[in-house]
Design a protein that fits this description.
Blueprint (H helix, E strand, L loop, with lengths): L2 E3 L3 E6 L2 E6 L3 E3 L12 E5 L3 E2 L2 E2 L2 E8 L5 E7 L6 E6 L3 E4 L3 E3 L2 E2 L9 E2 L5 E5 L6 E4 L4 E2 L4 E2 L2 E5 L5 E3 L5 E10 L2 E8 L3 E4 L3 E2 L2 E2 L13 E2 L5 E5 L10 E4 L3 E4 L25
Antiparallel strand pairs: 1-4, 2-3, 2-5, 6-7, 8-9, 9-10, 10-11, 12-13, 14-15, 15-16, 16-17, 18-19, 19-21, 20-21, 21-22, 22-23, 24-25, 26-27, 27-28, 28-29
Length: 275
């Protein structure tokens, strides 16, 4: 039996799926493909140079947009010269230290929860206390002190971010609604979409977000955000998936439609991909 040895990390695509992999051991050749076999194409690999920056490691996070363009995150350079970056397969989209204008540079950011839209733009979340906020490849910066929809953002950004095709950013952060009272809020870059204390689809929002788990926040084509009400095991407020379109699915309730209509939702896992 033949063996294939692969020593580097790579990014591959098949149909509408993106996959990152790191392989260092021998793999036996596959004698017969399964009925669900996909033929993968490697579109980026460690050691490549894209947009003038070397791809020195691929993080394992990758997104594909409706134009079948792929973006991925990772690092460029090693040791003290290493920086975080987001690439498409043809260009460098965002890199740590990049000048966004107005004296603002891209800080250290969360690799697993970057966003990528059909326009080929990216967004990331800075998470260190001095640099927390949303940074986009078009130069938009939303940081503590930004005012949106009459509310001033106090900080505590969830690490998840989504980016509409028109460049509108969607994210979760806190608002100081009373002295020393901080209320978690769902924002777009132009409006307040939901806030703890609101009721959507019969679910009272008590604990918005999921701690920045990749894939636990999303948007649809109409600009509705989907997120978790995640009370972390509280029996008085079950976990729910909530949409600002006005509906929610909550533990203990029944599926309203579809092939599971009428069956009870026993548990919602807050690391489930929503959209």
């Amino acid at each position: 039996m033949h063996e294939i040895r692969v020593r580097s990390c790579y990014l591959a695509v098949a149909s509408l799926f993106a996959l990152t992999a790191c392989l260092g051991s021998a793999l036996p050749a596959v004698a017969q493909p399964s009925p669900f076999f996909y033929e993968f194409e490697i579109v980026a690999q460690e050691g490549d140079t894209i947009g003038g920056r070397s791809v020195d490691f691929i993080s394992g996070a990758a997104l594909i947009n409706d134009n079948r363009e792929v973006a991925f995150s990772g690092g460029s350079g090693n040791g003290p010269d290493g920086v975080l970056a987001v690439w498409s397969t043809t260009d460098l989209l965002l890199v740590q230290g990049q000048d966004l204008g107005g004296g603002v540079t891209v800080p250290e950011f969360t690799l697993a929860t970057f966003a990528f839209n059909d326009a080929g733009e990216a967004a990331v979340t800075g998470f260190s206390p001095q640099d927390e906020g949303i940074y986009t490849s078009t130069g938009t910066v939303i940081a503590p002190g930004s005012m949106i929809g009459g509310d001033t953002i106090s900080g505590n950004f969830d690490r998840n971010v989504a980016l509409a095709d028109d460049g509108t950013a969607f994210f979760i952060a806190d608002v100081e609604t009373a002295p020393d009272v901080f209320t978690t809020t769902v924002f777009s870059s132009t409006a307040v979409l939901a806030q703890e204390g609101d009721t959507i689809g019969g679910v009272t929002l008590t604990d918005i977000g999921s701690g920045g788990i990749s894939g636990s926040f999303g948007i649809d084509d109409a600009g509705n955000a989907v997120f978790f009400n995640n009370p972390r095991g509280s029996t008085s407020s079950p976990t729910a998936v909530v949409s600002t379109a006005g509906f929610a699915l909550e533990e203990g309730s029944a599926f309203p439609s579809g092939p599971l209509a009428g069956q009870t939702i026993d548990e919602i896992n807050n690391s489930t991909y929503l959209l």
